[in-house]
Please model this.
Amino acid sequence: MKPSPRSLVRSCFLDGGYVFAEKAEDIAAKYGFSEVARLASNENPSPPSDAAQAAAAEAILSCNRYPGTTHEELIEKLQEIYGSYPVVAGAGMDGVIETVVRALVTYGDSVVVSSPTFSFYGLAVTAQGGMVEYVPRGASYAVDPQSFIAAAWDAKLSFICSPNNPTGTVSPPEDIAYILENINGILFLDNAYVEFSDVDYLPLLGRYENLIIGRTMSKVYGLAGFRVGYAFVPEWFRPCYLRAETPFALNAVSEAAAVGALSDPAYADRYIAHVTRWRRRFSEEIPYPVAPGGANFVMIDLDPLTGREAMDALAKKGVLVRSCESFPGLGESFIRVSIGADWECERFLSAIVSL
Ligand SMILES: *Cc1c(COP(=O)(O)O)cnc(C)c1O
Model:
C-alpha cells in the first residue's frame, strides 16, 4: 500500500504550533454580550491613525505594481526617528524573526531562548530544523546573565525578549551589554513593547556587532492587521538578511501605512500615556499579585485558580484575556491582560475584583 502523503510532513508541522487568542465574537455569542473587552492579544484598542489610513488608501491605487524591493521610504523614516542604524523590514516582526532564523540556522543547530517567553522563536527555529534550548529566567523573571551566557556563548543565535512577553520584565541595558560581550553568536533582542518602557537599547547597536533589535508597528502604532515589523541589524548582516528574505515580503499598502503612522507620533504618545496610567491603576487595584512590567499588558497570578479557569470566569463577564498555561516554564495560575480602551479596563477591573 502507498504510504499516506501525511507521512511526508515533518512531525513539527503535524501538531502543536502557535496558540491564538479565542475569538471575541465566539465569546460574545456564547455569553450574550454585544461587545467583549478584547484584552488577550496586546493590541492597540484604537483604529490606526488618520495619517496611516490615508497613506494606505492612497497606496492601494498603485497596487497593480509590485512594491519597491528595498522598503526605502520606511527605512528612511525609521532612521530619521531612531538614528542611522541599518534597518530591515518584513511582514510583522514575526516575518523578520523567520528571515533571521532562515539566514542563520541550519539542521541540528542549537538556538538558545530565555524562557518563559513568546513562543514564535521556538516555532521558527524548529521549522528550520534547529533545536531550541530554553534557559529559565531567575527570581522575579529577570534574565540571569551568567546562566544565559553559560548556555548561549557558543550558539549561533539566541533570543531575549524585553519587555518580556508574558511577564512584562524589563532587562537592564547593562545586562544585555554584558551578555553581548560574552557570547560569540548573535543575540536577537525582541523589543515589541519597548516603547511602553523607560529603557532604550539603541545605543548598544553602535557598540556591538552581534546585536539585532526587533521592533513592530503592531502594538504602539496600532497596525497589527497590516503586519509590519522591522529590525536594526549590524551593517555586515544586512546583505545576508536580504539574501534570505522572501521577495516583496512587505506589501506596498502596509509599508505606506507604516510611514504614515510614523509621521504622527502624537498618536503613539497618547496611547503610551494611556497605558502608563492604566498599568498603575491595575497594579494598585487588582487584588492579586501583578508582576511589575514595562509593556502594554500585565501578568497576574491568580493562584489557586488556573489561568484557564480564570480566563473562563472572566469570559462569562464579557472580558477576554490570555491564559498563560501555554507558556512553558511558567506556573499554571497566570493570566496576561492587555491594557485596552477605558471601558474595557473598567469592565476587567470590576470582573477581577468579584472573581
Ligand atoms: C506581538 C509580538 C511580536 C510580533 O509582532 P508582529 O510584528 O505583529 O509580528 C513579536 N514579539 C513579541 C514578544 C510580541 O509580543
Observations:
- The chain is about 35% helix and 15% strand.
- The CA atoms of residues 72 and 255 lie 10 Å apart.
